Design the sequence.
């Protein structure tokens, strides 16, 4: 197979030459440099970063004029050189079950989807890391869309800020701090392969975890990867979040078909990298995601092989069974509920948690693996229409 494109090749620059710099998405050191380059005295730079950082990430302020602890002249100077911008929300669909699916537009007119899933004890935001994906997992809707580009760190953290805007979750200055957070967890399980956009994903998650901003604990952030083996140790060391792995098959033959990156790094190599993750990241368990596909990967033997893999490598694990979410044109069917339960039972009896993920937001096509930008869908149907028209003319 052809080698997948490596990370960062397609990220657009943060700003146009000579245009104002967007402060959203800059790490603290990068913001410091940017402020100095714009005339902030070196000695003051650290304090100014702290102040501006808190306005942006703690209070959700987007306008320099509201940064009342900065001198008026300095605010005006900042407004000339910088902007505080997040992606624009183009539409919002709310499912019967309360799941919200947002379509957001990023620079260049591209669009990505972001999903908010409210639960009793938490609210999870499913964030995208790329427009499309270089990989072509055969059961995934995003996989049918070519990679358009990587998202910048600002566009990734911007999805979180946009959701907080929509949920009305920024604190009002002076008001008591909210105890219960509507947006309490982040999963990098939207469109794209986060480990092929490593630096931007890392910078964005560092911002989200920063104690003087959005303040989400690394234990509440889960990064899901299809298995980019060389980046797994870096994820532990440089991000330190929870890891989920799109495992989905128990033999190389089947995994090659479902998750083609397996041809590059096979099951044994992947398991080896996973085994060192908990120690490197000081996290507890790895989540094995396993999509249940009727007659493909859902036999009792599969369940036993899965356990054997995990035990052989002594990986502390939880196995998340995902009923396949169908999408138009998909070549697979969801396993029956009885099959899924029997599979879960074998895993549970072997001593591992085996929750079955309840599909959320299916009525608005917001479930796992159903994301694909509406424009891309529209483009495709336009192409299809044209193709059909061509056929009609020729015929
Ligand atoms: N690219 C990353 C993260 C995005 S996909 C990855 O592959 O891990 C998030 C999860 O949804 C993955 O486990 C993916 O395998 C799963 N998924 C994709 N398509 C699906 C579908 N149609 N039904 C159920 N799960 C799906
Ligand atoms: Fe890309 Fe993940 Fe979908 Fe595979 S499952 S095509 S890696 S988004």
Sequence:
């Amino acid at each position: 197979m052809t080698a997948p494109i490596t990370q960062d090749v397609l990220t657009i620059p943060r700003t146009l030459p000579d245009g104002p710099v967007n402060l959203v998405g800059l790490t603290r050191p990068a913001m410091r440099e940017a402020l100095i380059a714009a005339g902030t005295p070196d000695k003051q730079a650290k304090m100014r970063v702290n102040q501006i950082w808190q306005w942006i990430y703690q209070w959700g302020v987007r306008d320099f004029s509201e940064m009342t602890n900065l001198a008026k002249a300095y605010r005006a100077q900042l407004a000339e050189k910088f902007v505080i911008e997040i992606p624009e929300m183009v539409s919002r669909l709310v499912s019967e079950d309360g799941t919200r699916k947002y379509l957001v537009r990023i620079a260049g007119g591209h669009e990505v989807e972001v999903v908010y899933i409210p639960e009793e004890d938490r609210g999870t935001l499913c964030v995208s890391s790329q427009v499309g994906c270089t990989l072509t997992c055969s059961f995934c809707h995003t996989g049918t869309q070519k990679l358009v580009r990587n998202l910048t760190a600002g566009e990734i953290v911007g999805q979180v800020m946009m959701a907080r805007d929509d949920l009305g979750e920024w604190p009002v200055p002076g008001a008591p701090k909210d105890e219960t957070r509507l947006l309490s967890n982040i999963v990098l399980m939207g469109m794209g392969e986060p480990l092929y956009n490593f630096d931007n994903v890392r910078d964005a998650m560092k911002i989200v975890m920063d104690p003087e901003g959005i303040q989400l604990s690394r234990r509440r952030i889960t990064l899901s990867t299809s298995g980019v083996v060389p980046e797994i140790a870096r994820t532990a060391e440089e991000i330190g979040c929870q890891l989920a792995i799109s495992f989905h098959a128990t033999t190389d033959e089947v995994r090659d078909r479902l998750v083609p990156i397996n041809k590059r790094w096979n099951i044994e190599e992947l398991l080896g990298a996973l085994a060192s993750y908990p120690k490197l990241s000081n996290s507890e368990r790895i989540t094995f995601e396993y999509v249940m596909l009727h007659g493909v990967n859902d036999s009792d033997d599969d369940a036993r092989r899965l356990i054997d893999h995990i035990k052989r490598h002594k990986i502390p694990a939880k196995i998340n069974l995902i009923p396949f979410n169908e999408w138009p044109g998909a070549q697979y069917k969801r396993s029956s509920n009885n099959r899924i339960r029997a599979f879960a039972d074998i895993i549970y009896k072997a001593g591992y948690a085996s929750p079955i993920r309840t599909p959320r937001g299916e009525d608005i096509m917001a479930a796992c693996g159903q994301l694909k930008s509406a424009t891309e869908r529209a483009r495709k149907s336009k192409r299809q229409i044209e193709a059909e028209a061509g056929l009609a003319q020729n015929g």
